[in-house]
Fold this protein.
Amino acid sequence: MAPSAIDPPSTSSPIAWDAFTNIIDGKPQTSSKTYRGTNPSTLETLWPVPVASKEDVDAAVSSARSAFSSWSTTPFSTRTSLLLKFGQLAFKDHAAELTSLLMTETGKPPFVAGIEIQDSYNHCAFHAGLTLPEETYEDDDKVITTKYVPMGIAAGIIPWNFPVVLAVGKICAALLTGNCMIIKPSPFTPYTALKVVEIAQQVFPPGVLQVLGGDERLGPWLVQHPGIQKISFTGSIATGKAIMAECAKTLKRVTLELGGNDACIVCDDVDVQKVAPQVALGCFFNTGQMCVCTKRVYVQEGIYEEFSKALVAFTEGLKVGGPGMEGVMVGPLQNGMQFEKVKGFYKDARKDGNEFMAGGGEDEELVNGEKGKGYFLKPAIVAKPPHSSRLVQEEQFGPIVPLLSFTTPASAIALANSTPFALGASIWTTSPSLAQEFTDKLEAGMVFVNSFEKPCCQGYMSGWKESGVGGESGKLGVKEYCNVKVVHVYK
């Protein structure tokens, strides 16, 4: 007999960190067809991963449907305690192994990988402390109660830039609210997600949390499946639009966290030597492969020259290399497709005659004097390219940014708001009133004052315009995984 939703699995197995399977109904699932990822720091081929079939998708949905009836009625306090237990087991007890695996599949420097694993634990701890209070209205003849109830089965489609924490954020919200979830990792970075869900089987009943790795057919199978009620996708705008169109056919609920072209605005009242390094970190953290990385820097004219010198000096001191090299701050691009795309921005800027203040030379791909050992690019800063250029208008998702200027706050706001992206923005000023003006008028789901973009589990993360639909994290994020039921009781 399968364990009930309130009983943890009776046995646990040691984790093998060099063997990877899908997880369906609490059990490992292999496949006759496999694929392999690539270590972006060395270009070495990694371990085989099973390719899920359409039958695997059906089996996972069936298992989740069976588990939902008991998991959705499990006491909320029990779900929170299991979520916290999962966080401890995966991201504390196995933190070292997951960090190492994450560095291997993404090329992240140790400190960046460590932040992702710690943030994954933080998501578990934060969500375990939340509640879903009912809202009540009462008058002379009736009581109206608003309840938040689980939707059913959710599928989380995860990108390759943060394969652990972006999966865990979706897992926490879905499971806390009584849903079951199927995770689909990116084929570029399947390994950590597969292990996280494998570890989770020691905590949650079969079918509550499953994972399927696969090829380009897997995402559409999940999105089109009539047994899935919710899709949560993090990725590109183009794919997000395609998912939304497919979800409309079955009226699935959908959350889309899509691309960003975040503007950083630096006013002339700041301490340049203090702020410039922070702005550089906002541009090049995780090699610029972050939806809310700074991707456009606007500096007020009066300090442009001084600020550019400080920004370039700090950027040129950032060490580029693989996770095994000491003192590395900037790792490789995660995959060859993105590597070639980002090189296109470097090439276009050179072709257009733009001035590279940092990077952009013939040695841009060299690490320790060698080329071809990984997907490495040196961080680049381009001085005042035309506002109509690709580098300004598009999301680079790599270590190259334009350094632009502005005259008045009104002109900075107009420039920042002039793209179809509206995910995040950052403001640097010592003036509270000026900061308020910017936060009120900038079109962005998240605005950071006197900090580069640092999304966290406590804050709702959402994009406006073409940067997304709905959002995740924070107290509001869990409601994205709920249906609303309103009960009217007349006296």
Residues 332 and 375 are 5 Å apart (CA to CA). The first helix runs from residue 54 to 71.
